[in-house]
Design goal:
Length: 132
């Protein structure tokens, strides 16, 4: 499946007193990975929400391998495990500038109708882009 990568520098606010990225900071990194993966696919998360589809996280797993530090340039690689149905499962790998694996993670999100809060199938326009 398609892999999207993006890089950014760790900000001071994301670290603890020792300059190590706090474990809670990785959750937003994963969210940024998903948003950028969708954007690279040609899908706007904002437009999806405006059209009444939301994607709540229903499962999150993070395995920390090595610490990221303040001012590190880190890269988040994001891909999906399989074609989505009602759920979409993302896999992530986060690396530092030296290409050392820092973190592996997975999230599972459900496509939901914003008005009814009921699960729905993955929109066809997303499936079409994944088939290209």
């Amino acid at each position: 499946m398609r892999i999207n990568s993006f890089s950014f520098r760790v900000r001071y606010v994301e670290t603890d007193q020792m300059g190590i990225v706090h474990h809670s900071s990785y959750v937003p990194y994963l969210e940024m990975g998903r948003i950028e993966w969708l954007r690279a696919l040609g899908v706007s998360y904002m437009k999806m929400e405006e059209n009444g589809i939301i994607l709540p996280v229903i499962s999150l797993q993070i395995n920390y391998k090595k610490s990221a530090l303040y001012d590190d340039l880190i890269t988040v690689e994001t891909r999906i495990k399989k074609m989505p149905l009602v759920k979409i499962e993302f896999e992530y790998r986060i690396f530092n500038e030296k290409k050392e694996l820092l973190t592996e993670a997975t999230t599972v999100l459900a496509f939901m109708d914003k008005a009814t809060n009921k699960p729905i199938k993955c929109p066809e326009y997303i499936l079409e882009k994944l088939r290209d």
